[in-house]
Design brief:
two-stranded antiparallel sheet, 21 helices, mainly alpha, about 425 residues
């Protein structure tokens, strides 16, 4: 049988466990007590240079590997000797050379610089003070030079901005001439022009640059910043796409009735004068003159024709377009004025007399008048055109009365022509 232990006696395993835990706790405490000072000393060693130098001196005297390792690092005594050597050397130099070397030392090791200056003050206070004054003046002069350079740069930037604003405000032809003069002024002409273009709005820069020769334009682009050059080229591409769109729109407008086209263009506020110059160029001078003859704003007509002319001179070298537009405008404006006068007269006439006039003009029409434009287009105006313009101004009831009073053949023919779109 197993031997029973006396009551109250604890098992041996429990006692052994407690002893083991007690030893472990003591070991942890010993480690903490040992490591904490080491960590504190290590931190102090790396953060405090004086302490580090003193430790290096002590540890370099240790035997074996430890002493060999710490002999590689300078001790406090060695550093003091180095500082003394440097300070003696500086005091032997003339002030200007000492200033140059001390400024280099200050930049590379501010603490060593302070130690050297303190040692120099101890050895020769008067000369050291002279050297320090020279260092101060050199620093001040350097700052003054930097400020002067910055001031010059700012003034140059303002001058370039002023030139950019001046060129941007010129008419395009004059702006191109001004830039060409800048290019021809010196061997750095393209660079000088590029510096101005840095401050010119992209759309204005596009209009000027693409009137220059390709050689001049590419040299200016090469001298521009990458960002500005890319921005101008993107603006040029967008402008070319816009022109292509306007040319397509012009094809649609060229077949539209002149009166409705005036309303269409007038109501589209997104069109600039430059856009309209492209549109009116591409609908042709005959149609352009017919439309402009119906525009009441003379200032707008003048500005638009002037813009078309300027574009032709720049892009083609001569203007063959606006003379035809002006001729067409004159012909259609005279025709419209005659129509308005006749409408006022016919409004006062009796119906039977109006019917008689319409019948005679339909049956005995005089030969059409033909006007030739320089580009080969012709403008034809007939009695029939005159009748149709007059009748379309009448109220529907009056038109119906006139048609009913004519014979069937004339009434049918006139009805068909009134129903057709008037180009």
């Amino acid at each position: 049988m197993a031997e029973k232990k006396p009551a109250g006696q604890k098992p041996e395993s429990t006692e052994a466990s407690k002893k083991s835990k007690g030893k472990g706790g003591c070991l942890v405490i010993l480690l903490i007590l040992f490591l904490t000072p080491l960590l504190a000393l290590g931190t102090l060693y790396f953060l405090n240079k004086d302490f580090k130098l003193n430790v290096n001196g002590i540890m370099s005297n240790m035997p074996g590997v430890v002493g060999d390792y710490f002999e590689k690092f300078p001790t406090r005594a060695e550093e003091v000797e180095q500082i003394r050597m440097v300070s003696d050397y500086m005091l032997k130099l003339d002030a200007s050379r000492a200033v140059d070397k001390l400024l280099i030392l200050q930049k590379d090791d501010a603490r060593a610089y302070d130690d050297v200056i303190k040692d120099m003050l101890r050895i020769n206070p008067n000369k050291t003070k002279n050297i320090l004054e020279a260092i101060r003046e050199a620093t001040v002069n350097k700052d003054a030079l930097s400020n002067t350079v910055q001031g010059i740069s700012e003034e140059q930037a303002e001058d370039l901005k002023a030139k950019a604003a001046y060129i941007s405000g010129l008419p395009l032809t004059a702006a191109v001439t001004e830039v060409e003069a800048i290019i021809a002024d010196s061997i750095n002409g393209h660079k000088n022009a590029a510096e101005i273009f840095e401050f010119i709005e992209d759309d204005v820069a596009v209009s000027i640059l693409y009137q220059l020769s390709q050689v001049d334009r590419e040299k200016i682009f090469a001298a521009l910043s990458d960002e500005k050059a890319a921005s101008i080229r993107n603006a040029y591409s967008a402008n070319q796409r816009r022109i292509a769109d306007l040319v397509q729109i012009s094809d649609l407008y060229s077949s539209e009735n002149a009166s409705s086209l005036v309303d269409t263009i007038g109501n589209l506020s997104s069109y600039t004068i430059e856009d309209l110059a492209v549109i009116f160029k591409n609908i042709g001078p005959r149609k352009a003159g017919e439309v402009l003859a119906k525009v009441k704003d003379e200032t707008f007509v003048f500005d638009l024709i002037a813009k078309i002319k300027a574009n032709e001179l720049l892009n083609e070298g001569e203007d063959l377009l606006t003379p035809d537009i002006l001729k067409s405008l004159k012909i259609y404006r005279e025709f419209d004025d005659n129509v308005l006068e006749l409408i006022e007269v016919y409004q006062e006439m009796e119906m039977n007399k109006v019917v008689q006039i319409v019948r005679n003009m339909m049956l005995n029409a005089s030969p059409s008048k033909v006007y030739e434009l320089n580009n080969g287009e012709t403008i034809t105006i007939s009695d029939e055109d005159l009748i149709l313009e007059i009748l379309t101004s009448f109220p529907q009831e009056k038109i119906a009365s006139i048609l009913s009073a004519l014979d069937q053949t004339l009434s049918s023919e006139l009805t068909r022509k009134l129903a057709l779109p008037q180009n």
